[in-house]
């Protein structure tokens, strides 16, 4: 059993409901159920609904000397006698990682997990 407070869980479920991921089922045996097929709900969608859609990495203190050491100036973007377009090398790496993570989370749905659990349960049942 998860040790999550009822108020925190209520806030999460409210966000999921507002974004159309779950809907409330009224009645004594009510609760929540998926509002769409499990194969249409990606992990990215769930995480962004709960956590928000902010960037994972942001360069801070871009005017520091250390930051200047981590930037590269693209020659084709340099204006004669003007500033070049500086791009933080670390930010490029982190942005690439974030893109890969987003794609991975998009490729995995609630159904992906349900299928894996069903397969795991089937394999354990066959071993007995």
From TrEMBL:
Signal peptide: none
Top-level taxon of origin: Bacteria
Name this protein carries in UniProt: Rrf2 family transcriptional regulator
InterPro entries found in the cross-reference section: TR_Rrf2-type_CS, Tscrpt_reg_Rrf2, WH-like_DNA-bd_sf, WH_DNA-bd_sf
Provenance organism: Siminovitchia fordii
PANTHER family on file: RRF2 FAMILY PROTEIN, WINGED HELIX-TURN-HELIX TRANSCRIPTIONAL REGULATOR, RRF2 FAMILY
């Amino acid at each position: 059993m998860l040790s999550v407070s009822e108020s925190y869980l209520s806030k999460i479920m409210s966000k999921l409901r507002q974004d159309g991921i779950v809907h409330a089922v009224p009645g004594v045996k009510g609760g929540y159920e998926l509002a769409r097929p499990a194969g249409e709900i990606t992990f990215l969608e769930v995480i962004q609904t709960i956590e928000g859609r902010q960037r994972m990495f942001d360069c801070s203190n871009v005017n520091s000397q250390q930051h200047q050491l981590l930037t590269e100036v693209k020659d084709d973007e340099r204006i004669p006698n003007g500033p070049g377009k500086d791009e933080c090398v670390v930010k490029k790496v982190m942005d690439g990682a974030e893109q890969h993570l987003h794609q991975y989370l998009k490729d995995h749905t609630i159904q992906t997990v349900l299928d894996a659990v069903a397969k795991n349960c089937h394999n354990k049942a066959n071993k007995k």
